[in-house]
Amino acid sequence: MTNTIKDVAKIANVSIATVSRILNAQGGYSEKTKFRVLKVIEELGYQPNAVARGLINKRTHTIGVLFPKLSSSLVTDLLDGIEKAANDNGSSVIVCHTESNGEKTMKYLQLLIEKRVDGIIFASEILKDEYYQFVTKAKVPMILLSTESYAYPVPFVKVNDYHAAYAAAKHLIDKGHTNIGMISGKKDDIIAGIPRIEGFKKALSDHGISLSPDNIVFSRGFNFPDGVEGLKKLIGQFPDVTAIFAASDEMAIGTLSAAYQLGIKVPEEISVIGYDNLNLAEMSIPPLTTVGQPLAKMGEAAAEMLFTIMETGETPESRIMPHKIIERMSVKERKE
Amino acid sequence: MTNTIKDVAKIANVSIATVSRILNAQGGYSEKTKFRVLKVIEELGYQPNAVARGLINKRTHTIGVLFPKLSSSLVTDLLDGIEKAANDNGSSVIVCHTESNGEKTMKYLQLLIEKRVDGIIFASEILKDEYYQFVTKAKVPMILLSTESYAYPVPFVKVNDYHAAYAAAKHLIDKGHTNIGMISGKKDDIIAGIPRIEGFKKALSDHGISLSPDNIVFSRGFNFPDGVEGLKKLIGQFPDVTAIFAASDEMAIGTLSAAYQLGIKVPEEISVIGYDNLNLAEMSIPPLTTVGQPLAKMGEAAAEMLFTIMETGETPESRIMPHKIIERMSVKERKE
């Protein structure tokens, strides 16, 4: 007959909760009690690890979130939603900053698992094989946020980048533009690079607008300096451009800044549409028209999916959230 | 004779490191070894807690950082420095987001202590009595970053807000302005409110510039909307204003945005100087002249001070870091 935690508690003359606290090193008991309980466990040949893993509730009410970059206001907006859901579920959120660095990411995954988080939200980054294997082996639930994995069956929450980029380009076309350029992110980024480029191309071709390689500038990342450089390069190779789709709001704001420095008026001479709808988009001059992602809702959904796994053990469906065009003042109707 | 961890290791026939790992529940040993070691500990009447507290190295190589708000790029810049120092010391950084909420702050302090962080950096927020008492009782080292405590002897790293605000106002005076307004933060904030207001006033009075209550607008916070509202209010009560000191870069960028909406040209009609030198300051239109704080260096210093306490047990001196005026394009010389 296998002994249970109840037997341990009974023989040691303590409550089940105390045994559980001792097994999880949570404190709140004397050393004397601890050794009495551990002695009973030993005498019964009881497997505390099995207990710790299943028979008792070992939730720490903490979830861990990994972000590649904290500067982006994308993070705050996503985190607002994560924290709302965590709060509703009585949990706290620990944030780790990976800088898209593989070694650092592994270190943080290890740390979160050592600290016994109940689950992990892995945001805005490509899920590498080693990350997946490590988390899976540790049996810690994981949700991907604002990213997805083609290789591994990890549930995710994101918008459809291809459709959202298509919508951005179509907005420029609907405003009468035909000389449309794109300042794209990384050419080979399978999450935020390729789908946005392909969506942009498809919108142009669906509307009979010809496209040459000069219409698109590729950048090293999705940041402000990429937008600054991007505009300069785009103007050089495509001087007739009247409207630009920048693949992130930070890049769009870099585009606005470079235009200002070059004496090009936005939106009078060039229209600019961004992607993300960061807080920053409202703060820019002129306020930025952009493709909005429901970031707070996405964060909330990711955390809720994590709690669903913890409570039911079942894997939830991935969620594709709706995008929408947020019209502000950086895109102007073109009348020819 | 008191037994040491060495005796335990010898009798149990394991390494000291193994005993240490068992006492700290760090894994990497079999259940069999664990019980053999715990048995020896019991037989020797050895006090593992005393061990855990002093005789062995119980560091988890994790430090916790509390920020009131993650959206601010202040955070990234501070965190860059913290992570650099942590990395140099082989430690990881856990970030918690308190939203300046007392209950949430207490919950996170508790969580960090439960997770056995080696030390805490408490950033950009007033240190309340209950926070101080809790952390002190837990005997976890703490450093204040970009804030200080008048009530408690906790080492801090920050700039001198009074002197930095004085420098900002003096920069406007040096550029020939005499109708100078201030969009201040919270009137009763003893860290970032009062010292900046008083520094501003002192600079004006030292240079024979008269000051009426209409020169200063008080805000509810230090954010973008406070700057937007602030400019509207300031223009209303002080229509002759030609130069403005905004008490944070986010407020300064709100001021630029409101000016753009009102058709007021910066710097041609109104000059604006900010405070912080966030990444954002370079991205604004026009690029923002501001009072720079060496944020990355401040973060690095705070983490290094924490490691000093851990290693030596001695309390380091607080550090006042130098500020400097970063000239960009939002302040214009006034010739009358």
Automatic annotation (TrEMBL), chains A, B:
It comes from the Bacteria. GO terms for molecular function: DNA-binding transcription factor activity; transcription cis-regulatory region binding. Residues 4-57 form the HTH lacI-type domain. Pfam families: LacI, Peripla_BP_1. Keywords: DNA-binding, Transcription, Transcription regulation. The keyword DNA-binding applies. This is LacI family transcriptional regulator. It comes from Cytobacillus firmus (Bacillus firmus). The lineage of its organism: Bacteria, Bacillati, Bacillota, Bacilli, Bacillales.
